[in-house]
Amino acid sequence: MAKRWTAQDVLDLARLYQPAGVLTAAAVLDVFSPLLAKPMTAEELAGRLSADPRATAILLDALTALKFLSKQDEEYSVPEDVAGLLAEQSADNVLPMVRHLANCLRRWAELPKVIQTGKCAETGLGFRGTDADRADFIGGMNTISRPVATGVIDKIRPLKFRHVVDVGGGAGTWTIALLRAVPRARATLFDLPAVIPIAGQQFAEAGLTDRVNLVGGDYYTDALPEGADLAWLGAICHQNSRRQNRDLFTRVHTALTDDGVIVIRDVIMDSSRTSPEAGALFAVNMLVATEAGGTYTFDEYREDLREAGFDEVILVHQDEFMNSLIRARKT
Description:
alpha/beta, Arc Repressor Mutant, subunit A, 2 domains, 15 helices, 47% helix
């Protein structure tokens, strides 16, 4: 049944940028970390942040209204549950992802222009700079993947592989989950050279350094490391056009051993491209952020994999967002 919209529904939806903007600005400025150390007035915090006192006070009052902060007299403090999520001191903080979403928000603000021109948003550098933006993106992917990785990997059991290549593997979250699922296997993580040190730190903390090779390169232009019997493509295909994906699948096919397997983890749309809802919205995110990326149907993936030389293409798991799984075998 179609939703019956009211004027209030429309206006409430259109205003949702406001709390998102307040939260992401606070994350980018790192408001919560100093307030965890001790309560402060707006003027004191502005001094710590090299920010304008009046503007800082307005931001802090909005954060208090949203229940992210507490205010007593003129001092602001951060509740324990919020600090666990948004202060640098917490090992479980989600700051990288929130900061990445701040950059997404800047791009989405350009959506009318993007729709008109067909070209992705041109927003320039983020507030924190190129290196920090990259670290936030990689860290953000780790933040959302780490809690679910083991459960998603379980969807493709029984797992039998000797060597997995994780293409565009980022921080190594999924490589770690795969290695833990198959204790005698080895892995190669392939990603841009600037990402490799981030992955190296994660493998060291996981105690898996001796089971992984870290290879820097660009999967758009460079040959992939050879010799693996499993290729894992986790949430990278949506960054590409279908032509780019066919080229990538062909290079994966070349790199795999005979009878090797490719597994794709990504958004899989239905034939109408309107479901799942999160996937339809994520296609817009790819529109504003990439030159040709998008979200694709299973039929499109099957066609492109077969063209690259794969067969036995199976939709192993259908998810409501990013964790759908497709498996195919090299022929």
